[in-house]
Predict the 3D structure of the following.
Amino acid sequence: MNKRIRVVNKKKTDRIFLEANNVAELLAAYEVHGERIFYAWKEGGEVKEISYGDFAALVKNIAKGLVELYGEGGKRIAVIGETSPYWIASHLAIISSGNVVVPMDKELDPVEISKFFEYADVSAIVHAKAFNTVFKDMVLDNKHPTVNCLIPINGEGLESTENANVITLSALTEMGAASEAEFFADTNVDRCCELLFTSGTTGTSKCVMLCQKNIFSNVMAACATVDFEADDVLVSVLPLHHTYELMCTIAGSCYGMKFCACTSLRHVMKDFKEYRPTGLTLVPLFVTTMYKRIMSEAKNSGKDKILGVATKVAHTLKFAGIDLSEKVFKDVRAAFGGRLKKIICGGAALSPELTSVFESFGISIYEGYGITECSPLVAVTPYFKRKPGSVGPAVPCNEVRIDGLETNEYGFISGEIQVKGDNVMMGYMDNDEANAAAFTEDGWFRTGDVGYMDKDGYIYLTGRAKSVIVLDNGKNVFPEEIEEYLEKIEEIAECVVVGREEENGVKLVAVVLPAYEKFPEIEECDLRGNIQKAITALNKRLPSFKQIHKIDFRKTEFEKTSSRKIKRHLVK
């Protein structure tokens, strides 16, 4: 909870979207949206677009092609590759044809991918061109124990093979279009239709089972609570296998919004300028990185102090009904295309100060909270009643409770966040032990995240139960809380706090990547010295048990997931 940070809230307005409780109803909504542009993406250097009506036809033809290929369905079909309308169309078609979709992370090692395919009993793979050679070597000539069919989105390099187990997505689509069978989408909302692997290796990952009720209850909850509008334009930055990005895409499509595919993280700012988004769905690390880039450029041009003062003045004037964002922060806004109005931010806790700063820029940040096992959205900050530092109250499709006995400094019960609702997964596939551990005796899902809830039902995250550091004196320290302080030190690019066993007990260690690119003119020893001084000053403001006892410096980025989360378990 942060009582110091305030923002001006928007007025509550009616949410105008088309309801969809399964893929069949979603496609019907797309046909109503008709000629509105659904997706824009780059292919061969050229920007291409597809309308909602044409996209609905594409999904139906792929689905009919799968029925021609597999009959009544029940097959498990993976989808892997970069963001594109073909990825989304395949995902929806697999579900509507009565099969089970298995979205995969394209950043994983091919050996790990192969093991995941085997574990999930995947029969076929819809894949991007980048995987043509990888999967050709992995699958053809009966080299894989379960996969026997490749469905390349671009079949370049696979056309010459005479193997009957290769059919391009375009050929599959044509097969569906030529079929005389009427399109019939599976409307069984209780059937397992999607398998999702939690982050980790095949040895630690669990396979989440979702049904259409899980997915679409979450989609409708997002539509009812998030500040979407039909004329919004979103650029997809996070990968589509990430449930957060995919759910937001489906929810936004119920409004008839336009989506644009990010070329790559390297070119994301260029994409922003070209597509000129009005909204983004991001994780906190991305927001923090963008802010640091803005401040770095301001410092290089000698405008950092002016920007800092202008931000505070603009924030104060907003409460008097005066909005200076368009004029004062024109250059900052131009970096995002000039039209950005909102960011939906989830995946971890965000510094409340960033919400205030971006608000001054004319960009509202709405924090949310979710987890794959909950499809994923659990809570989101209402656009009409924000509390910076909170991820908001529970969304309509679920209930949230705090399981704990300790009372925190604000007088609220702190403990594990637990969830019950239509969005909660069916369970982990073939894993009775994990299922027993994941649910309480009275049926609530145990998220493993720790936080508290205020009198208005707003949820505040304080840490991850699995990352908690237990000190010798019995005190629990959530590293995320300390990292939030460290991230405000401008000389620090990235950091992770760990607990290490020393001679006199467990001590907190900050593993730090200095901002070398931001301060190229400063010698490394001086840069490290500045960081040490800043942490020493920070320690004086923190309780003794939360103080950093040692700093470890590194020269390379931390290993991250494809959604830009640091793989904390790899940091020792």
